[in-house]
Amino acid sequence: MRILGALQLDHAAARLGGRLIWTEVDLEVQEGEFVAILGPNGAGKSTLLKALLGVVPLAEGSVRVFGRPVRRGSDEIGYLPQRRRFDPDLRIRAVDLVRLGLDGERWGMSLPSPAKTNRVAEMVELVGAAAYQDRPIGELSGGEQQRILIAQALVSGARMLALDEPLESLDLNNQQAISELIRSICQTRGVTVLLVAHDINPILPFVDRVVYVAGGHVLSGKPQEVIRTETLTALYGTPVEVLHTSDGRIVVVGQYEPVTHHPDDH
Amino acid sequence: MPEPGPSWDVVADIQLLLQFHFMQNAFLAGTLVALLAGTAGYFVVLRGQSFAAHMLSQVGFPGAAAGVLVHVSPVLGLIVFCVGAAVGIAAIGREVDAGQRLESAAIGSILAFSLGLGFLFVRLYGGSAQGIYAFLFGTILGITDRDVQLTFAVALVTIASLAAIGRPLMFASVDPDVAQARGVPVRMLSLAFLLILALSVAITVQIVGTLLIFALLVAPAASALQLTARQGRGIALSVALSLAFTWLGLALAYFTNVPVGFFITTLAFVFYLAVRLVKTRRTVVAPA
ipTM of this predicted complex? Predict the structure, then answer.
């Protein structure tokens, strides 16, 4: 019998608001891989994550996570949605937010449990957030909030992280630090990471593979194979150009960005 | 009133306070409402739904008037209007409405319309303004034994329901996207919370008055949330403050003959103001 990967999409298509946003998607991700999901706004990067979370049902085809059909609320996937910052006035302790990731979906009152407290403490330690775990989440910086959210995503024993633009609105130092943290979680714990990004550059040194979503289709491979003028032009269906700056950054020029139709990047 | 004034002997004062049956009932009902409002209020403030609470505590007025007009019980009218309003707010939906601009606009519109209806019903009934006045400011000093029993039942049901849904409701309140992905029925909880709030307000409002309900639903929880970011302590503190304001307000009103509603709202407001001032000073002096 063939060993199934962490994620497998077969002939998948997704519909959003009546419109097919991508079709014919075949994709396989192996356990422990760090995969970046790239593409222009509105191409359906977030929808790809929501499909494997079971939040957005597929219009066609199938998606399997760790060999099983997806279902909403699975402990195996930790999710970090695309967001603005937490409301500065939200007066809930950071550590309580992590705890909600463990048993927040259960009914009834939360009773003291040393095992659960230890599990939460372990995750807070892992992401390096122990120093500010007792402060209200709204008062933390963007980078601190991301660390707490990664701990929350991992705490229920997730083997896969689905991260939607976790580096957005962070400064360069924090982008670097969070990318390194994700890489180290991926390596030391064998966690599969799917990370949606608007810009490949901060994560380029860390990813194993990129998945490019554009023009209603998906292309995956090594960054240097996929992010090339010819490949992306074929994928977009319109001319785009990939430039390499002298400091090693990659810039994609001429990519089509739909205007005003979708305030959220789905 | 001719009673002797308070002394520094607390025991004697309490004996004095509770010598009449109507004061015993006022303390019992007040205590129950404070427990209920302190608990529910924590979620109201956490979810940023103070305006929804305001509306639910006012929207019963035309309901009660309608009930009187068509010769059914005013309580039935209250319940119908409060529940209708709760469903109305929930139908507008929070899912796509992170800033709650839609919600607050919807609440404002529903509230204005309902007050307009209330005036119409009162005019049609041709009744005096006395009843409306009693409704708005409560009749906590005229509470019957049956009222106390009813309040007890409502407080019990409300607190038990909140205990049952409290944890996922907390999750859905602070982090709706992740909660939904984890299988929490976010929209259903939003409706459930508003319905619990609507029913408990509808029944207690005619006992202690809309002013008191609204005061206890927001200010104590708002102060508690400023003072602690721990959930358990926050709820406990919110309840403790509600109880303190209610008891103290009742005692002050008894000894001074000034309306209870004034004292309770003033205590709640002054405490909240003090908490905010201290917090602001602290942030200015020593930024965290």
Answer: 0.86
